[in-house]
Amino acid sequence: MTGRLDTLHPRLPSPLRELSDDRFTRHGLRLLLKRDDLIHPDLVGNKWRKLAPNLAAADGRTVLTFGGAYSNHLRATAAAGRLLGLPTIGVVRGQELADRPRNPSLARCIADGMRLHFVDRSTYRHKTEPDTLARVLREAGAEDAYVVPEGGSNAQAVRGCQALGEELRGCADVVAIACGTGGTLAGLAAGLSPDQRALGIPVLKGGFLTAGIRALQDQAFGGPRGDWNLNDRFHFGGYARVPAELDAFAEDFEDRHSVPVERLYVAKLLYGLVALAEEGAFPRGTTIAAVVTGRPFAQEPSAVSR
Q1: pLDDT tens digit string along 157-173?
Q2: DSSP 217-234
């Protein structure tokens, strides 16, 4: 499978571009964009870094994974299945969605050959428990499937994301990234030099990521790695919530720099960095690299809180 992945020709290392933005320069800061969104047209950004080692481990078996109705991870897994000829199953949170028309995100998964299996929200909350997982696999007819967790974050994915940090060694003082399940940050921090810091901007509210990232580093490396911290002030109410203020910020950033801004993760990251710069959170002379982990989907949730 590793050889088959090579035929997809990922653009690695991904490009690193400096932006001139007065909201940073007037505070003596440099802003770089790490364009992981340009790694591959279908397996964008951290999805490549997290999925590639898992697809290699699947070794041709059906890949089963989990996500919500607008999951970027489900879309990327479905695309990988299409490109590599692998059967994929997406376990979707919300049994009530089974009888509704498919939103554009789930429709794309189906078009890429993914079979969707809907479960109720209580089952979804307990999906990592062995008995619940065994029942889901049985009901999906996939007892022998290779299971990738929600968001793709497991030890293989974390080790895959370590290369992101290694690509950024010596390039920035602070490397910032939007976080969903925390796997990319866990690997990124491990790959950076000791004098660099990784900053995570969670896109979900709840304050649960710290323990999860520590656990992922334990699984991947046997203990903590790197200097990292989280700032959970910029989730805008939770995942898939894109209020008008955030949408306007993203449009303005696109106009300033001709860079497409994905709304669910990247917009929150960039908004957070601008706010922190204005607050004086970074010493003058700091170079900040923001990791662009995705690009806009043609029909993302509208810019209305939901």
Answers
A1: 999 999 999 999 999 99
A2: HHHHHSS--S-EEE--S-
User: Taking 90 as the threshold, does the pLDDT of residue 207 lie above it?
Assistant: no
| pLDDT, position 305 | 29
**pTM of the full predicted structure?**
0.90
Tell me which DSSP letter residue 67 carries.
E
Q: pLDDT tens digit string along 31-58?
A: 999 999 999 988 877 889 999 999 999 9
Q: How far apart are CA 19 and CA 33, in angstroms?
A: 7
Q: Are 162 and 136 a contacting pair, CB within 8 Å?
A: no
* CA separation for the pair 107, 19 (Å, rounded): 35
pLDDT at 302 over 70: no
| % helix, strand, coil for the chain, step of 5 | 45, 15, 40
Q: Do 62-144 and 2-41+153-291 fall under one CATH topology?
A: yes
- Domain residue spans in the chain? 2-41+153-291, 62-144
Architecture of domain 62-144: 3-Layer(aba) Sandwich (3.40)
| Nearest alpha carbon to residue 45 among 266, 230, 255 | 266
Structural class in CATH, domain 2-41+153-291 = alpha beta
